[in-house]
Amino acid sequence: MRDHGLTLRLGLAASGALLACNVTSALGAPAGMTISHAWVRYVAPGVPAAGYFTLNNNNDKPLTLDGATSSACGHLALHESEVQNGAARMIMVQSVTVPSHGAVKFQPGGYHLMCMAPAAVVAPGNAVLVTLQFQDGSSLRSTFPVYGAKGK
Length: 152
Prior knowledge:
- Helix content is 11%, strand content 51%.
- It has one helix and eleven strands.
- A hairpin with a 2-residue loop joins strand 5 (73-84) and strand 6 (87-92).
- The chain is globular, with a radius of gyration of 17 Å.
């Protein structure tokens, strides 16, 4: 007789292990585009979270990132932090172009993903799946581990 509870627990454990690996999916991804150093900054329950990563373009032409989705966020948007007249603020951006044979860093104080209405899974020790969407219709998926406010 099969223990369906054990089968379910093993399946969930395997899924969690895959998420923890921070593996970038190549399905539908633009050739030569990779994500590295991906992570999500958790601050507190119900408070927007931020996603950071480096997007590398090893193509001969620039590629434009124009959106992102995650089931862990009510809404996920491209943002940029800037300082104007000594005051820091965040602005929503429509797109970010990654130069050919170059990279763009999404990091604290610069470009980032803003996760509005984060689900309970957005908590330190977990990982969330994020899909980046490009202007040419392609997409790139990666798991982002969730760390605390200090990035640990």
